[in-house]
Design the sequence.
């Protein structure tokens, strides 16, 4: 029915009809009726088509994937649009990585992909296939929370320096700090290093730490203690 209406529109019959109606003084009333008829037909067509479209889309979008997370291979079946964060939290029950903004603005979802920090909310799970993914759960050598000697040095430093209050941002802060320290060790420069005039071997000053950790927001404002924790591990003085 919508096809025949479109044909009618294409043939200019409607224009002709409207011209006649305008001449008769009934233009607005009947044009509106015709408009409502067309809208009704199109709406019905869309409503009938939607379930079919949704089913086809779902079937086409779900694929098998293997993610290597914290040293273990995990076989999953995911919608190709799934973010790495949702795959970790919803499919693998690794809820240490937090969803703060889901828009790449807070850093709460930071994980390591082949040693580099990424916002997992902005990374498609399929883009991380084949990579070594490390979450906060995979940093400690031993999962015994009573034995902090088994924690990753950055985790232990956050404990020692009270680098958190509510803790929501903390997994992302710690993953980010681990990568930031590695970046500094291998000589990667930040805008702060450039301002100091150094073109190699940047020192992890507090300004460097603040700059390199600036993608991780802490709503509790635990920044001074976070800086102290990172400084302690990086082996630098303020
Ligand atoms: S949840 Fe990913 S950056 Fe905020
Ligand atoms: S400790 Fe609460 S948001 Fe950072």
Sequence:
């Amino acid at each position: 029915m919508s096809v025949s209406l479109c044909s009618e529109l294409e043939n200019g019959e409607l224009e002709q009809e409207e011209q006649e109606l305008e001449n008769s003084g009934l233009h607005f009333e009947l044009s509106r009726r015709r408009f409502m008829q067309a809208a009704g037909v199109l709406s019905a067509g869309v409503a009938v088509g939607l379930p079919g479209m949704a089913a086809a889309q779902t079937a086409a979008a779900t694929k098998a994937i293997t993610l290597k997370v914290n040293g273990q291979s995990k076989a999953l079946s995911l919608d190709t649009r799934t973010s790495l964060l949702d795959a970790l939290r919803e499919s693998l029950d690794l809820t240490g990585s937090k969803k703060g903004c889901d828009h790449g603005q807070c850093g709460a979802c930071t994980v390591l992909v082949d040693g580099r920090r990424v916002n997992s909310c902005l990374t498609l799970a399929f883009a991380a296939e084949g990579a070594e993914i490390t979450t906060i759960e995979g940093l400690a050598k031993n999962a015994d929370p009573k034995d902090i000697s088994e924690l990753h040095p950055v985790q232990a430093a956050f404990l020692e320096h009270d680098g958190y209050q509510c803790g929501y941002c903390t997994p992302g802060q710690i993953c980010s700090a681990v990568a930031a320290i590695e970046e500094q060790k291998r000589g990667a420069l930040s805008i702060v290093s450039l301002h100091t005039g150094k073109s190699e071997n940047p020192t992890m000053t507090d300004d460097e730490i603040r700059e390199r950790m600036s993608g991780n927001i802490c709503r509790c404002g635990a920044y001074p203690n976070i800086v102290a924790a990172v400084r302690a591990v990086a082996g630098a003085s303020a």
